[in-house]
Amino acid sequence: MISNRRSPLTPLAQESLDALASALPSEGEITYEQAYATLKDREELEQPAAEDIIERLYMRGHIYEVEGKIRLTDYRPE
Question: Contact at 8 Å (CB) between 35 and 54?
Answer without folding.
Answer: yes
